[in-house]
Amino acid sequence: MHVVLHEPEIHYNTGNIGRTCVVTGCGLHLIEPLGYSLDDKYVKRAGMDYWPELDLHVYKNYDEFSDMNPGARIFMATTKGGVPYTDAAYELGDYLLFGKESAGLPEQMLKQDVSRCIRIPMLPGRRSLNLANAVAVVVYEALRQNGFAGMEQRGLLV
Question: Which among 15, 38, 51, 82 has the fewest CB atoms less than 10 Å away?
Fold first, then answer.
């Protein structure tokens, strides 16, 4: 699986998402501009000692991302989505695209394939979940649907 952040703004969120990607085996794709420097100590602090293990890809813009990942099957997380994230049928290798914290994904991007616009259900009148939390929710559903392939599923207390 791949997590894609379109123009992320908050370093702590990216650090936390990077840690989630490392423990789940997901690649992290960042589409510029970023609201911080990747050398920022806060990004790495949030990602803890996992950051050096991160499969990280950075792109100048969405066009470069698209060119570098031809044929990518992309699901776009948005509060405007009509499909609950649990109803989508994920496959290993899919790309899960999330927008920036202040505005989400651009509407013209969403209109490219509305059938792949997924939504995390929330109470009426609420804006959205924190980006790092939203990524974790969707990633774990996609992995669950694929049997948590390659992941340890039982601890010592079985």
Answer: 82
